[in-house]
Amino acid sequence: MNVLQLVTTRRPFFHKQVEALERHGVSCTVLEVPGGDEDTRSPMAYLRFYIKSLGAFPWQYDLVHANYGLTAPMALAQPARPVVLSLWGSDIFGQYDWLSRQCATLADEVVVMSSTMADALGEPCHLIPHSVDFEQFEPVQKETARETVGWDDGNYHVLFPYDPDRAEKDHPRAVRVVDAVNERLDTPVSLEVVHGVAHEQVPIYMNAADALILTSTHEGSPNAVKEALACNTPVLSLDVGDVASLVDGVSRSAVCADNEELTTALTAALQSSETVDGRAAVEPLRLNRMAERLTAVYRSAIDRRCT
């Protein structure tokens, strides 16, 4: 099977998706929108991408997979091949949700990351969240990880694994929560912003941290949460995306309604010595399983066009 993959930005989880698909016999050609990221690209960048997409002769492939809503119009511009549209989260809950919703009605198959997204979309879709590379994200000894990243000061370290300038991640809220926790504990608590490091280095920060905090205004199925759990790192989060289902039953982890609950839960998580088995919670999200399910969706889209 030959698939043309259209994507706004080649994020690490997308790379892993493509690699897993190719291991399952799907040959992937990737085209990326030029010129920055989703928040900074000009309309001209998408016009160039439209021309580039058609120039790739998409009708020569078995299928076109639009990854993220803003790539869907380019995939749908050619009527000859079936289109699978994967929505990631902000394309349903952000300013271009109207475009994603309209394109979802025209695609042959639609994939979403969480049941919250499926409910918001209100269209038939497949629930296939992005998966975790269990070989990359695995538990290592905390002391070793801390020595590697330089967090060997005896403080608590809470990980914020996003660009603090992304408004939807709400870094200021995370700062307020950690400041409130500091007022309750004798041991200092540091909020560690980890952004812009090589993806291969992220697991060592996950293992060095005492907890991960998520204060986003909206999410689909946040990969950072799944990666932290695979490293057995506690996760404290607002109730966004599918985080509640991911941390269900995981010790020292919680989904909270507001800052006060988040402060209380994070304080308790830092003080607790209970073992965290988040890895078992995300076991079903291994890469191979995701690739199998996506391949089945591809075949369904192709079969639908043939009938």
What is the element layout, followed by pairings?
Elements: E1 2-7, H1 12-23, E2 27-32, H2 43-55, E3 63-67, H3 72-76, E4 83-86, H4 90-93, H5 97-104, E5 109-112, H6 115-121, E6 126-127, H7 142-149, E7 156-160, H8 171-184, E8 189-193, H9 202-208, E9 211-214, H10 223-230, E10 235-238, H11 243-247, E11 254-256, H12 259-271, H13 278-281, H14 287-306
Parallel strand pairs: 1-2, 1-3, 3-4, 4-5, 5-6, 7-8, 7-9, 9-10, 10-11
Helix pairs in contact: 1-14, 7-9, 8-12
Notable traits:
alpha/beta; 307 residues; 14 helices; 6-stranded parallel sheet
What does this structure look like?
The chain is built from 14 helices and eleven strands. By secondary structure, it is of the alpha/beta class. The strands form two sheets. It has a six-stranded parallel sheet with strand order 2-1-3-4-5-6, with helices on both faces. A five-stranded parallel sheet has the order 8-7-9-10-11, sandwiched between helices. Helix 7 (142-149) packs across helix 9. The two termini are 18 Å apart.
